[in-house]
Amino acid sequence: MIVVTGATGATGALNGATVDHLLDRIPADQITVVVRDRAKAQRFADRGVAVRPAGYADPAELPAAFEGADQLLLVSSNDPGADAVSLHRNAIEAAVAVGVGRILYTSHQGAAADSPFAPAQVHAATEHLLAESGVAWTSLRNGFYLHSLDWLAGPWRETGIISVPADGPVSWTAREDAAEAAALILTAGTPLEGPVVITSQEAISFEQVAVTASELTGRNIGFEVVDQQDWVAAQVAAGSPEGMARFTLGMFRAAAGGWFAGVDPLLEELLGRKPRTVRAHLDS
């Protein structure tokens, strides 16, 4: 049995899509979703998927939710106010307690304790927990999600310019492609061990995004790198909480440091086709 967490709510766009792909490949009675709100998982229940209630913050609920899992797809917590590593520890310990065969964790490219991007530090710490758990594990290091360009590049369609506090190549990867890849990995005959990188085949900087946007729109879309503190101040003035602005600044700093620059052929090999590109996304 495959047990999937985070298939609804804010993380549902990733793991929910993975469940949809699983349903195309294996019978529904081989899939269980673990959710905090059963009502949000009704579409899966209607298709014959078992639904179990549990949340990472309640360790007592988790063992029963994971019972019988040959594989557990564990989505990372997206609560910015939570101690995500502790939440992940709760889930891993519960999986160990009930004898889960393998844990697959939705990590991120560039997971490292010294990354300027805070989630990368969480992913690195969680991967360490997995390595120490004694359970077989796979960490799906997904590339930076392509849809994030819609807000990270700012309102360039209105302003005619992409203005960022730092720049560097990013292997922008469609979340839909990553979700399909996870389903393919879960249903493959041979498991993948440890960290695996799931990215597009190209790493594109924000400056290159501006060039592509210019080609697609027939307009001259400008590009500039501005002072980082001035950028934070502008984000706050536009209504963003300062904590969120500084969190996002960490992404740009990590990009400038090359943390998201790597590409890997695995995603294309799994999908049997070219992954979605930045050009296709901007043109949609």
From TrEMBL:
Domain NAD(P)-binding: 9-146
InterPro entries for this protein: NAD(P)-bd_dom (IPR016040), NAD(P)-bd_dom_sf (IPR036291), NmrA-type_oxidoreductase (IPR052718)
Pfam families according to UniProt: NAD_binding_10
PANTHER family reported in the protein's UniProt record: NMRA-LIKE DOMAIN-CONTAINING PROTEIN, QUINONE OXIDOREDUCTASE 2
Name of the featured protein: NAD(P)H-binding protein
